[in-house]
Amino acid sequence: MTFQSPKGTFDWLPPRSERALRVREAMAEPARRAGYGYIETPTFEDTALFARGVGESTDIVSKEMYTFQDKGGRSITLRPEGTAPVVRAVLQHGLHNGRLPVKLWYSGNNFRYERAQRGRYRHFSQVGIEALGAEDPVLDAEVISLGVQGYAALGLGGITLLLNTLGCKECRPAYRAALQGFLRGLDLDEATRQRIEINPLRVLDDSRPEVQARLTGVPLVTDHLCQACKAYHEDVRSLLTASGVAYTDDPRLVRGLDYYTRTTFEFVHGGLGSQSAVGGGGRYDGLSEMIGGPPLPSVGWAIGVDRTVLAMEAEGLFGEDPATGTPVQVYGVPLGEEARRRMFLLLAEIRAAGFVADMAFGGKGLKGAMKGADRSGASVALILGERDLAAQAVQMKDLTTAEQTEVPLAQVVEALKGKIQ
Ligand code: HAM
Q: How many CB atoms lie within 10 A of CB 70?
């Protein structure tokens, strides 16, 4: 019996795996230029961090966490998201006692026990940025535009930025009450009725058409904002407009995590079917206090690497040829034991000169090794037999023209420079 990767997971294999690397690099680059430093937190944390940070009433905490007891009897959870761990690390190391905002970016795996389908996995990867310790609409606008810049650098044209605000602890309770009042009057199933009491905002997010049809006239958060939240949101909007960032106001946008306050947003792509969110984020002014820290108003986002690659593929951004990695340019064909040892050293020299080089391993004969050269995609093969060794030379074969010349070993790098740009 052979093994398969667990349900809801998949392997990134070359050359497609290069696409994931490209997404990570492109999304991180604008953040680095804006002063965000790289942070890496553990893949697992105390379960209570997520229960309190992400929120007991969310699907993530109530249904989707990979939680287990370790051998020391601790309750451990594989991280379902990166924000709570980053805030935990900032508080633990006192980073918030220095210059604010603390700006961090990360890239890593996350785990959610979701109903697996295309674009929705149980193991997936995110790149994220977090700016902690400042309440300033300019910071919200910075965070959002850094995401926009990352997607633009990838060439993605079909992304829409949905923007909303969720108010603050001053105005949210009144909105929640108004929303509950409206929802309780609707004819809804039992599970949804329970949801109204626990997390009424999530009802707005229900994708079932029969639920959406009943929501006509539902109170919108934007009509219940306090003066401060209204002004803050207007600032964020006008800063985005001034910097040329297009957005769509979506007063029904709700996020699946409980820590959000004020600005919330999502990046959606039309080419992905039901899993359209390629990234999302917002402000989480109360999260630090929720996990035992001081007030630390903060804002950030995370983008899904897997979905972003799917979105790029939907736009045909990688062309026909999936190879986006570093194709082999030079292929060594050593004939015999001694030639193999010499080829090993020659390749090191060739690679140090900047070429991508590979060779035939395992003592293959000329025919098998030349087949390897063809498969590698290299344009030049270096054939080294016993006679060549004695002459301190190699046969350089141009694999496109089949032309072959003898080159002294000491001049191979020079000769390659003339042949390969
Ligand atoms: P999130 O919306 O849960 O937010 O996830 C962000 C992105 O991760 C999603 O837009 C999606 O692209 C990707 N994603 C989420 N779940 C899956 C899945 N099961 N399979 C594939 N991709 C997935 C957060 O995680 C927040 N921590 C974002 C944030 C940072 N807010 C403030 N700072």
A: 9
Question: Which residue's alpha carbon is nearest to atom 25 within ligand 1?
Answer: 81
Please report the sign of the dihedral spanned by the C-alpha atoms of residue 76, residue 77, residue 78, residue 79: negative
Atom of ligand 1 nearest to the CA of 279: 10
Q: Is 188 contained in some domain?
A: no
Q: How far is CA 64 from CA 57, 59, 86, 105, 120, in A?
A: 12, 6, 20, 24, 12
Give 51's pLDDT tier (boundaries 50, 70, 90): very high
Q: Structurally, how many domains does the chain consist of?
A: 2
Say whether pTM exceeds 0.90.
yes
Q: Cβ distance 48 to 80 under 8 Å?
A: no
pLDDT digits (tens, 9 = 90+) for 104-117: 999 999 999 999 99
Residue bearing the CA closest to ligand 1, atom 11: 304
Residue 57: pLDDT band with limits 50, 70, 90: confident
Residue 81 belongs to domain with CATH number: 3.30.930.10
Q: Domain check: are 367 and 305 in the same one? A: no
What is the domain extent for residue 61?
A: 17-171+225-314
* CA-303 nearest atom, ligand 1: 7
CATH code of residue 388 = 3.40.50.800
Same domain, 237 and 284: yes
